[in-house]
Specification:
Elements (H helix, E strand, L loop, with lengths): L10 H5 L2 H46 L2 E2 H4 L14 E8 L5 E8 L2 E14 L15 E9 L6 H4 L5 E10 L18 E2 L4 H4 L10 E9 L26 H40 L24
Parallel strand pairs: 1-2, 3-7, 5-8
Antiparallel strand pairs: 2-4, 2-6, 3-4, 4-5, 6-8
Helix pairs in contact: 2-6
Length: 308
């Protein structure tokens, strides 16, 4: 009866061999290099996106404000490329509809946005943009920021009569926030969102699906130094493209190469396990040249033919 084959070596028994450990260290080094290159590509992706955004902002600032009617008709969604675009429009404030938007920060301090409806009288189209609507539309205007729900008369004061407003455009928000808004007995009503869909139920007439963040007005409103709302910086597109996709995919490729290096070592260990077992089987097989048995009439030639 032939001797039993030796037990197959375990994965870790093969992996702990010195030469396998050396190979593992080399491949781990290669994987670390690939990982670092992937991180570098991600950094480049965000850097390029940031530079592109800065260049776009500079180009828009250099172009100066455009008429609101040239950029956006009433009740139409604001395209992403117009977020942060400066526009002008004329109209009359309706202070009775003024509200404060809760949970908004400026320079790390939480406070409120002063949101005021502007009944538009001139958007640069001589009224053609709302000719098919029920009347002149309303534009929500964020006139600035205050730190209290009862900011005082100066912060809530608006220029009387027709005013020409210039501001950064921003897309209407959703009404996804939950929870009840507390009553504000000492000040204007509170709201969580600047959502045209909700404001349309409060303000009469058609409404823009966007709002303007005030940069200037003529006549001017009270300044922050005299108790008026504090000015706000140029808004940015929330949830927009903030990474260069080409560099992002380069990063993924480097990380895949790193994982492949580790997988290659696992494959080498498994091949070593299988190869060692084949060698032991060959050494113990009847009919080998150095261990051939005389009572083997057939031998181990190809397809069972006697070997020479």
């Amino acid at each position: 009866m032939p001797d039993a084959l030796p037990a197959r070596r375990s994965f870790w028994a093969v992996a702990r061999q010195p030469r396998m450990l050396v190979v593992l260290l080399l491949l781990l080094l290669a994987a670390a290099v690939c990982g670092r290159l992937g991180v570098w590509q991600i950094d480049r992706a965000y850097e390029r996106a940031s530079l592109a955004a800065e260049q776009e902002a500079a180009e828009q600032a250099a172009a100066g404000p455009a008429s609101l009617g040239e950029l956006l008709p009433p009740q139409s969604a604001l395209p992403g490329e117009l977020v942060g675009r400066e526009a002008w429009v004329s109209g009359t404030y309706e202070p009775d509809g003024q509200m404060l938007v809760t949970g908004r920060s400026l320079d790390g301090v939480e406070g409120y946005l002063v949101l005021t409806p502007l009944r538009v009288s001139d958007d640069g189209t001589a009224g053609e943009s709302w000719a098919d609507l029920s009347g002149p539309p309303v534009l929500p205007v964020v006139r600035g920021w205050v730190d209290s729900p009862d900011p005082g008369a100066e912060a809530l004061e608006v220029p009387a009569g027709e005013v020409r407003v210039t501001g950064w455009l921003q897309a209407s928000e959703s009404t996804a926030r939950t929870g009840e808004v507390p009553a504000n007995a000492d000040g204007p009503p509170l709201t969580q969102d600047i959502a045209s869909s909700a404001l349309a139920n409060t303000w009469d007439g058609p409404i823009y699906a966007a709002y303007a963040v005030l940069t200037s007005s003529d006549p001017a409103q009270p300044s922050a130094a005299s108790g008026g709302p504090a000015p706000l910086p140029r808004p940015v597109l929330d949830g927009g493209t903030d990474v260069d996709l080409q560099n992002f995919f380069y990063a993924l490729q480097w990380w895949v190469f790193g994982l492949f290096a580790v997988a290659l070592w696992v494959r080498l260990v498994r091949d070593e396990m299988a190869g060692g077992r084949r060698e032991r089987r060959r050494d113990r097989r009847p009919g080998d040249r150095e261990g051939r048995h005389d009572d083997d009439p057939i031998g181990t030639g190809i397809a069972g033919l006697p070997s020479s």
